[in-house]
Design goal:
The chain is mainly beta. It has a single domain (15-154), classed as Beta Barrel (Lipocalin), CATH 2.40.128. It is built from three helices and ten strands; from the N terminus they run ααβββαβββββββ. The strands form two sheets. An eight-stranded antiparallel beta barrel has the order 1-2-3-4-5-8-9-10.
């Protein structure tokens, strides 16, 4: 006699646009390229997203959107099967100076912060990265790749 394992069946059910749409809570962690004061610290965020035919659009609220900008960051991307990839953009450019103070440049567009991850065990887990470019005192363009990790779960 075959036995039906209900819980094993649930693991393999495909997840749809309606499930992924809604409010998600998580945090991102700064990686090894950041200075000691920030490296390996985490920042909480809330994402409100709508997914239609796998296309993802929404907003991301974190300490920068709340304390620095009047508007929230915008996210755009996709979800395919249990994989997601999206870009987060703040309302304008923000960078940290050599003293780790935030500097906002309203005349320049935001950096594009790329998030990718997989949905497993009831949450998204992944990595994020962004390029930061600046001109040094000699006029040379320096580019630094910053990266870290992130995780988020759907709010009930």
């Amino acid at each position: 006699m075959l036995r039906f394992n209900y819980y094993a069946f649930l693991v393999y059910l495909p997840v749809n646009d309606q499930f992924f749409s809604g409010k998600w809570s998580g945090h991102y962690m700064y990686g090894d390229t950041y200075p000691d004061g920030i490296r390996h610290t985490s920042t909480p965020f809330i994402i409100n997203m709508t997914v239609i035919n796998g296309n993802l659009k929404g907003t991301c609220e974190d300490i920068f959107g709340t304390n620095v900008f009047e508007d929230t960051a915008v996210i755009t991307g996709f979800i395919e099967d249990n994989f997601t990839s999206f870009i987060k953009e703040y309302p304008c450019l923000m960078q940290f100076d050599e003293h780790m103070q935030r500097k906002v440049f309203p005349e320049f567009p935001s950096q594009k912060i790329h998030y990718s991850g997989v949905f497993e065990d009831g949450k998204f887990v992944g990595e994020w990265d962004m390029d930061m470019s600046f001109e040094d005192h000699d006029g040379n363009i320096i580019t630094i790749m910053h990266a870290g990790t992130w995780v988020m779960e759907k709010c009930s």
